[in-house]
Amino acid sequence: MKYSDENIYLGEIKAETLISQMDTNENQGVRMHGIFSRNYEEDLISIIDEEDKTIFELSRDSIFHLLPESLFFNENQLKKESKPYFDFEKEHAEMVKQKKAILSFFSPFDTEYFKLSLELEKSLNKIAVKGNHIFINLLEIEPEIGVKNEYISKIKVLLPFVSQIRGNHLLIVDIIKNVLSAEKIEVEEKGAFHKRFIIHKEGLSKEEYRLMDEGLIDFFNFLRQWFLPVEVKYDYRIKRVIKLGVINPAQLTDEHIAEIESRIIIAY
Question: Per residue in 158-184, pLDDT tens?
Fold first, then answer.
């Protein structure tokens, strides 16, 4: 199920983030194509294996690009006035050759700088993973209260991601369905700012349905507090489904009929 219409553009992900998740050769190098190439390329352009070395081609400036061009080239090198017998193609090819040699000279320095940045990314990833585990472990510890709500216990581990979940209607419906182990969740539009969740549940006794209904009161209060938009009113109903293949309508007892309540509906 698609929960968002926003696509993650690969060009917005920095090379260190991608490479830190890869199993790559320890012998690495970088080849900088200049920041101008970011107009039409991702940060990580390509990965090339050269003999026993892995080369990362990046849309970034080398040290060469940050230094004044006049340190390496004559300002009028590509102008006719620079030489008596000027050949533009020859001069341009020579300039490209010089630039390639200069970039090769600075490549080890660029590589060491990039390795430091990559190690920093890996360290931050380890800290993030450890922090997430600590946070989740804290959330999984049941508070010292008299009543334990199993539904809140399941969903509260998602609190670190509340900013991504809150208001995401499709995702919230899917979360409720999984937390409640429901067959289906329908959403009824009761008004411009009023929605009702219809929870399809099957195979529970009358007492189990009553206990579920009681547990859902606190569960939906928790949802309203953390995950549901405050400007919309939300409520719920439990819909009990009895399959005709199991119970024949002619065999329905008074007990079945008595279970038709405001929050418990028997659907044929």
Answer: 888 888 888 888 899 999 999 998 889
Return the structure tokens found at 35. Answer: 């920041």
pLDDT tens digits for range 57-84: 999 999 988 888 778 877 766 666 656 6
The DSSP string of 70-100 is GGTS-TTTTSGGG-SS--HHHHHHHHHHHHH
Backbone angles phi, psi at 73, to 5 degrees: -130, 150
Q: Where are the domains of the chain?
A: 10-137, 150-267
Closest by Cα among 161, 157, 154 to 181: 154
- For Cα atoms 18, 44, 40, give the angle at the middle one, nearest 5 degrees: 135
Which tokens hold the place of 73?
A: 């080239």
- The CA-CA-CA angle for residues 92, 93, 99, to 5°, reads 90
Give dist(CA 200, CA 211) in Å, integer: 16
Where do the H-state alpha helices sit in the chain?
15-19, 63-66, 88-140, 150-155, 162-165, 169-179, 206-226, 254-258
Secondary structure (3-state) at 163: helix
